[in-house]
Protein 1
Amino acid sequence: MALPLRDDEATRRFPWVTVLLIIVNVVVFLFVQPSAYQNPPRQSDHSFEAVRRSNERAVFAYKWGTVPCEIASGSERITQPADCPRRDGAPLPAHKAVYLTLLTSMFIHASLLHIGGNMLFLWVFGNNVEDRLGRLGFLVFYLVGGVVADLGYVASKLHSGGPAFGASGAIAAAMGAYLVFHPRGKVLTALYAGTVQLVYLPAAVVLGLFFVTQFFTPDKGVAWQAHAVGMGFGFVAALALTRLPSVRRRAEAHDADAALRTWAAF
């Protein structure tokens, strides 16, 4: 297992958008999502209160998460469109904006571990991408990347009736862009193979392994298709964005700063 902790690429401006995205995700998780996400009831608990909280959690997920068959049909699952499986007893919301969930789903997380891991990845890789694209440019890139990643997942699961959510597709887009902007960067990574070791690895190695391993993930609860599509989109989009004069100027300023730091070290 490999967990990135930080990189060695300095930013020229404080990453306000990255910080704001982290704050919004945390606030939604702690204060908007039902309490069953932060403190889930035990599976063995069949009390009225435990069942109520579990149902509340499910309704929230179906209301704000991306359900592939709903996107494919344009209709809510509760109306039983032909593209969706028959209702399986899960509580479903009566009204929802089907296509809006392509945005709202990227601000919902299933557990503390889920949001903790995603926000760590966002901080490690997002701040440098924001530094290169600018604040508004990064915000647009992040949101578009998340939507594209969601659509990639939908395309691979057209008749799935389960909700998908999490910021990982948008973050994967930022990781793809990081690979273009800072391929020689070094990432402090925690490696676990019986014991934990902290080592600096080239960003190309860390991100390349992340992309490849998405195709071999054994966890059916992980939307690896969204990760792969998001990262691919981020990489291709970043290649195109490097042609923009504003992005080139920020790259030149970053390289000048790096050269100055190297000279000062001597």
Protein 2
Amino acid sequence: MNSQEYIEVAVKITPYTEENAEIVTAEISELPFESFSSEDPFLKCYIQKDMYDAQALKVVLSGLDGLGFSIEHTATLVPPVNWNAVWESQFPPIVVDNTCTIKASFHEGLKKTRFNITIDPKMAFGTGHHQTTYMMCRALLRNEESVRDKVVLDMGCGTAVLAILAAKMKARKVYGIDIDAIAAISAYDNARLNKVGTRIETYCGDASLLQRNTYDVILANINRNILLQDIPTYALSLHKDGLLFVSGFYVEDMPMLIGMAQNSGLEYVSHDSIDNWCCIKFRK
């Protein structure tokens, strides 16, 4: 993977807002792009060189006309990156509520906490550093009785931080699903690295893989638009009295998410926030 060449597509959005960037991201996600980053006024999108189709991208972007903002884009070749070196330089260990430590395999001599998770990236998102992942970990830790001996789904699992934590908290079975094949493989490998591989199953796909009335707890740290689309499916997939934790959006997005959840038969319980990012707890 280190030798793979990537194309960076820089989409200039005018006027630039987080909401406009989310709209563009949702559309471009239909193509096999692997990651996105927002750097006002640009949305930067990354795709393997041999999977880049300039005409397909042009067609997708042309569908955004008339939405109240303008876009222009450039595509440049990104030289091969040593992702492991980038990972090591950007990933200090993190401790959640003095109870859970998330670290990389190269970290040594750290003080042990009750739960200790080792993550290796393979370019997948989810180290625990982002506010949303931190809050989801904190939500799990604060709802231990609802996790123990239960069936848990980590939707959009990334590197499987949440799935691994749920398994270490003695969940009976944990499922991890991610639309990104690299993430699904990374989740599988990290589950085994943390010696909980026998209780975690990982799959590549979307919410269409969910099974009705299957889960006691669903964790979905994705983004607002996907959550609004998939909350009805999550609701159908929960057992009665089951819990849904969602994050990946801003505090001002709460009303529309709560409205969708209530229309789907879920009850708002509480929420958490860090730096305007939000995490909501629902009960069926």
